[in-house]
Amino acid sequence: MEQGTNSRGRPGRPKANLEIDLYSTPAGARAVENPVRRTILAALRERERTFEEIVSLAGRAKSTVSVHLQEMAAAGVIGSRADPDDSRKKIFFVAGDLVASVSPDERVADALAAYAGAYQAGSGDPNAFYRLAFRTIRVSLMQEGVLLDPLLSRAGERIGDELYPAVAAPETGAFCANIARLWEEHRLGRIEVAETEPLVLLVYDCFECADLPVTGRPACAFDSGILRALFSRHYGRPTAAVETRCYSMGFNHCRFEVVPEDGRNGTG
């Protein structure tokens, strides 16, 4: 839908100061760089909205917003349906999935050699090379200002669904103990239950972020996705795993609040 161009107007590498959101759609990937469209899509990711709400949020003329919506709908990024209260009006929603964001402000300066240097060939740890590869890829992307959190979160959810039968338990305490054992057995980190209402999990030696540079923001989208899927299955309703502390925020652990999205207490 939108693409960076070089000095001759041909598609090329995006400008250095350009912020881009990348969406996947049934018709393929779509890059959104226009700030008005990115604002509209951010609002639609929160919930469906009417045309009037979008105009108010975008702060642009109705005709301008209408053009943006038409072009994004044609690209498959958004969709619409008739308003049940007024068939003359439409309600808009996001039809594509946010995959990644590219922002020059998110670039980090970090020495990749340190990751390779920490790897001990022949150490006997079969997972060491894969941890090295995962962290190196993450940092390489971070150096370019590419954030894959939405994609990593969805990948984590898929894995969480597959893992659930291996850790399922009717009682929440036993369920958490099973998750902690799985994490430790696979060297993903050490999990402790810090609080029960709401449920708070602390992860030490987190495989996803323990060696990442400090950026001031949570980095464990993959773990969050796994925990979201596990606890959604356990509680039988959508449940968020919100990361409030992280190694990449300067802490010596990661902290997740497990909160059912309907607001009801999830302990069992």
Description:
The N and C termini lie far apart (47 Å). The chain is globular. A 4-stranded antiparallel sheet has the order 2-1-6-7. Strands 8-9-11-10 form a 4-stranded antiparallel sheet. Strands 3-5-4 form a 3-stranded antiparallel sheet. The longest helix has 19 residues, at 149-167. A hairpin with a 2-residue loop joins strand 4 (78-83) and strand 5. The protein is 39% helix and 24% strand. It has 268 residues and is of the alpha+beta class. Helix 6 (149-167) packs across helix 8. The chain folds into 3 domains: 20-99, Orthogonal Bundle (Arc Repressor Mutant, subunit A), CATH 1.10.10.10; 108-147; 150-268, Muramoyl-pentapeptide Carboxypeptidase, domain 2 (2-Layer Sandwich). Residues 27-117 form the HTH arsR-type domain. Residues 198-260 form the 4-vinyl reductase 4VR domain. InterPro entries: ArsR-like_HTH, HTH_ArsR_DNA-bd_dom, NO_sig/Golgi_transp_ligand-bd, V4R, WH-like_DNA-bd_sf, WH_DNA-bd_sf.
Please write out the topology.
Elements: E1 20-25, E2 28-32, H1 35-46, E3 49-50, H2 51-58, H3 62-74, E4 78-83, E5 86-94, E6 97-102, H4 112-118, H5 128-143, E7 146-147, H6 149-167, H7 172-185, E8 190-196, E9 199-204, H8 221-235, E10 239-245, E11 254-260
Antiparallel strand pairs: 1-2, 1-6, 3-5, 4-5, 6-7, 8-9, 9-11, 10-11
Helix pairs in contact: 6-8
InterPro entries: ArsR-like_HTH (IPR011991), HTH_ArsR_DNA-bd_dom (IPR001845), NO_sig/Golgi_transp_ligand-bd (IPR024096), V4R (IPR004096), WH-like_DNA-bd_sf (IPR036388), WH_DNA-bd_sf (IPR036390)
GO molecular function, one term: DNA-binding transcription factor activity
Domain HTH arsR-type: 27-117
